[in-house]
Amino acid sequence: MRTLMTTSLLLAAVLGGCAAAPGSDAAPPAPEKLKVQVLSELPHDPGAFTQGLEFSGETLYEGTGLVGKSSMRAGPAGAAPSVRQELPGLFGEGITVLGPTAWQITWQDGVAIERDAKTLAERRRVTYTGEGWGLCHQNGRLVMSDGSSRLTFRDPVSFAPTGSVDVGRDQLNELECVGDSVYANVWQTDRILRIDAATGRVTGEIDASGLLTPGERGSADVLNGIAAVPGTGEFLITGKLWPKMFRVKFVPNS
User: Which secondary-structure segment (H or E) carries 172?
Assistant: First the structure.
């Protein structure tokens, strides 16, 4: 009898240990809390309603918005652009550059413009459904936001949708792809999210508040524009109508 009870207790302990083990539905870890550490400041066109910002090599590309003021431009960071193309009649949004090709999307016009990455000359236009906000490229695909909680993956040649993931956070705006992560400005806030593109899980929340002085804030709009500086682990960030760009690192917010 004692042997039977001992065996039963051991079996119960084993089963209990299995039940306590984390399962596939276990809660994911909380997002890492980060802040910006400013390394340097660069001038930025205060008339640029920034919608997209991205490096390709040492060249910084920027897309701007507002009807009648939309453009795409490229040149050294902190200097006047060496190449610029206007986008008349449309409201420009996010941009991305893949080798010889640059893409620029539009807000509510349902049009994406394919450009020559060197001259920014327009090659062709393709249409899409819904709004366009942010754009970046990752692992042979485009990643696009539309102001909702969803990221849509698109073919880099046809621009056709190939899939999507829900992040669970609304107002995803300008995007920057870095490795398997997507960094997203959250519209009307000073926050940037780091997102696992495979699952949509938010792995980091970055507090980018306090970059502008109260005087600069008076004529500036929201934070929007994040570009990874190649080979450094650093980023260049700015906003709509901001007079400055900031070269930063994302560090623990302790």
Answer: strand 172-178
Separation between Cα atoms, residue 135 and residue 111, nearest integer Å = 13
- Residue 105 CB neighbours (<10 A): 32
Supply the CATH classification number for the domain 32-252.
2.130.10.10
pTM: 0.88
Reported as a single tens digit per residue, the pLDDT across 132-145 is 999 999 999 999 99
User: What distance in Å separates the CA atoms of residue 50 and residue 218, rounded to the nearest whole number?
Assistant: 17
Distance CA 50, CA 178 (A): 20
Strands 32-43 and 202-207: parallel
* Measured distance CA(53)–CA(125) in Å, rounded: 21
Q: Nearest Cα to 186, choosing from 224, 218, 220?
A: 224
Please report which confidence band the pLDDT of residue 187 belongs to, taking 50, 70 and 90 as the band edges: very high
Structure confidence at residue 25 (pLDDT): 66
Residue 10's SS3 state is helix
Q: Enumerate the domain spans of the chain.
A: 32-252
Give the per-residue SS3 of 126-164.
Answer: EECCCCCCCEEEECCEEEEECCCCEEEEECCCCCCEEEE
